[in-house]
Amino acid sequence: MATTVTTSAEGKTWGGGKEPMGISYGKMMMWFFIVSDALTFSGFLAAYGFSRFKFIETWPLADEVFTHFPFMHGVSAPMYYVAFMTFVLIFSSVTMVLAVDAGHQMKKNKVILYMFLTIIGGFIFVGSQAWEWKNFIKGEYGAVETKGGSILQFIDKDGKRIALGEFAADIPSERVADTKSKGIWFFGNETLPTYSVEEVVEGFKAHPEVLIRTEVIDPKTKKKITLSREESLKRIEGTQYVVEGANLIRNEYGQKLFADFFFFITGFHGFHVFSGVMINVLIFFNILLGTYDKRKSYEMVEKVGLYWHFVDLVWVFVFTFFYLV
Amino acid sequence: MSHEHASNVGRIWKVFGLLSIITIVEVILGIVKPEVLQFNTFLSMGLLNWIFIILTVYKAYWIMWAFMHLEGEAASLRWAVVGTLVFLIIYLVFILLVEADYIFEIFKNSTIKWNF
Fold first, then answer.
1. B111 contact partners, CB below 8 Å, separation of at least 6
2. What is the pLDDT of residue B93?
3. Is the ipTM above a cut-off of 0.85?
4. Tens of pLDDT along A277-295?
5. Which of A78, A260, A302, A315 is least surrounded by Cβ atoms within 10 Å, i.e. has the fewest?
6. Are residues B18 and B48 in the same domain?
7. Are residues B1 and B45 in the same domain?
8. Domain span at residue B44?
9. Where is the Heme-copper oxidase subunit III family profile domain (chain A) (predicted)?
10. Which residues 42-101 of B are in CB contact (within 8 Å) with A?
11. Residue A224: strand pairing partners
12. Can you give the pLDDT at residue A151?
């Protein structure tokens, strides 16, 4: 039966030492996942670009939004914190390659050390992101939204942003947030902002030094356009909401979609980092137990390493398109 | 392919240094925003944004080549990964951004003002 004789293991893919594309099954599946996940993130970032180009004249300026740095209250420190986060992630990527490298040489203790550092880096990054979210949600100055949906921010004569609390009038009134304990049923309402629309409008009229800054970017200066006092008084009449901080419906920074994309894309990335840390912890315990030592191969570390670098790779793009460009 | 088992530690730190320097340059440019770069455009995009995007892609290249070890993989795998991504992403971004710019013009120049 000459036809059935096989002289080699050619028929068996991944059998007999044959590997398509010269890569093991597990690593190839990780690459499949990474390519598809990269396309998912590209879809999100491209959608962000779409919305941004659509509202290119009114999009918030990142260095006015992300200005916080720990223990430095009231100091405008754009970029520094997110630069720190970027370094944390790059560094944890480095410790991950070092772990893979030590794995190639079967040095168990070194792999343990580097995996541990990688996990710590991941936790610091996730924690930093939570802090960034907290500041974003809380907001700093507050703004008002007009009937037409634009956000108006307030500045003083020198062009410095001022918070609503600095000029809002104090008008005693009944503003009660409905709760279940106050009625059998009610129409759901939103959390009440610190100041009512009347308080902000009256306070604005009583303080002649306060001006309104629109969300429109002047193409000549790349700064937001400020209105004169007369124009400001006209504009304030259209106030419909007082906006403090950010949620999925409106935010004090400007375009509504800005906060939505920020929450969605950095949230999705943060979820990836968190999953990555969990998988790293799992692998870390396997290394401690000596599983890979017995297997005589640390390839599992390489596979989670690929995922971890991918998370870093995505952050490089998120960093550019949310904070730099 | 052959993964040489010699230690690459020196090279890893070199790549880390490179990535750090690029990040620092990006952050400095992001804070200073030199006017020459901000207000001069090439293909209707500011030079500063071109620099940011090129540096980002350069960083991505080093992460994928050195850290994810694509440089040591077979050419077929490299093409399968990079070719697919580059083609699809450029395609998607091109279509979406051109369309978004068109919608921007409509909002700006016609009576439609609905902000959605």
1. none
2. 96
3. yes
4. 999 999 999 999 999 999 9
5. A260
6. yes
7. yes
8. 1-73
9. 27-325
10. 49, 52-53, 56, 59-60, 63-64, 66-69, 73-74, 76-77, 80-81, 84-85, 88-89, 92-93, 96-97, 99-101
11. A217
12. 92
Q: Report the number of distinct structural domains present in chain B.
A: 2
3-class SS of residue A23: coil
The reply to whether B63 and B102 lie within a common domain is no
Contact A323 B68 (CB under 8 A): no
The CA dihedral of A251, A257, A262, A263, to the nearest 10 degrees, is 80
- Could you give the domains of chain A? 22-139+258-324 (1.20.120.80), 143-244 (no CATH)
Tokens found for residue A169: 């009038």
**Average pLDDT for A119-134:** 96
Is A22 close to B26, i.e. CB distance below 8 A? no
Contacts of residue B91, Cβ cutoff 8 Å, sequence gap at least 6: none
Which residues does residue A102 pair with via DSSP β-bridges, in sequence order? none
A161 pLDDT above the threshold of 50: yes
pLDDT band at A201 (very low <50, low <70, confident <90, very high): very high
